[in-house]
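Supplementary Methods. Inverse-folding protocol.

Structures were first reduced to a discrete structure-token string of length 280. This string, shown here, constituted the complete conditioning input.
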């Protein structure tokens, strides 16, 4: 019988495919040191030191910088154990006494995080697996399979965006309020993420899912909308309006305004002025 399993580290973790739906692999991830993020379905999840997770087949996940961005998960120390369903079938064939244990493992459908006494035993076995000789690994693997067949000390990891709707709306109000009060000055993603109490990397993805565009693009859109009000309601010069709405130069203001509206600020002002006089 072939080994049927792969033991790896953070490099192997980053190579795992985002789309697992056509795969038949079981993946166990233990975070020994470091922190970061990972994708489960379309949801961004926090990754913390000490986390121990089990992903059954047909679960879509990714820890790869190619999917998350280079700033994610760059200082992780992890142990990854992966095996496929064909190997489990082979184990049942060679060791019939293990059939009940294997069948219980194959019943798992959702990704789980491990806690309690099971976390202690499974963490120790995974660390031992890294350090022991290759010919001693099968015994450790069988002990791990025995633990996996026992569903105690497990919590299902939801692949639905875990943000409470009330909390999400509250954060949106905080973001809108902050931008309303500060759009004319220097505003950074880090400042706003600190204001709403979120990590920068999580806030970036949270913001895009909430507003449908990146932070910088949305901020420019807010500034353009504010400038449109000044263009119509005042006779201020374009440089003055650009400065008042947070644009460093009138040239940059012109470029962003055209990108957002399809027209220059001057053309927009003339058109709106013509319409106003026409109505009069």
């Amino acid at each position: 019988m072939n080994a049927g399993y792969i033991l790896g580290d953070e490099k192997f973790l980053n190579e795992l495919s985002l789309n697992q739906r056509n795969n038949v692999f079981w993946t166990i991830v233990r975070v020994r040191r470091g922190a970061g993020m990972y994708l489960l379905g379309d949801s961004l999840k926090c990754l913390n030191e000490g986390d121990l997770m089990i992903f059954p087949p047909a679960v879509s996940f990714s820890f790869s910088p190619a999917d998350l961005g280079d700033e994610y998960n760059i200082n992780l120390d992890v142990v990854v154990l992966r095996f496929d369903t064909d190997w489990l079938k082979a184990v049942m064939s060679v060791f019939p006494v293990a059939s009940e244990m294997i069948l219980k493992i194959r019943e798992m459908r959702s990704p789980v995080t491990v806690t309690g006494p099971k976390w202690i035993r499974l963490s120790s076995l995974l660390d031992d697996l890294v350090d022991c000789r290759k010919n001693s690994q099968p015994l450790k693997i069988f002990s791990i399979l025995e633990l996996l067949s026992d569903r105690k000390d497990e919590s299902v990891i939801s692949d639905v965006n875990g943000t409470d709707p009330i909390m999400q709306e509250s954060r949106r109000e905080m973001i809108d309020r902050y931008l309303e009060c500060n759009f004319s000055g220097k505003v950074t993603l880090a400042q706003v993420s600190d204001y709403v109490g979120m990590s920068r990397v999580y806030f970036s993805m949270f913001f895009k899912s909430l507003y449908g565009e990146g932070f910088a693009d949305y901020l420019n859109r807010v500034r353009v909308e504010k400038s449109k009000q000044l263009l119509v309601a005042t006779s201020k010069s374009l440089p003055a309006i650009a400065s008042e709405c947070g644009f460093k130069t009138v040239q940059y203001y012109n470029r962003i305004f055209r990108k957002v509206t399809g027209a220059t600020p001057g053309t927009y002002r003339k058109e709106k002025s013509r319409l106003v006089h026409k109505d009069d």
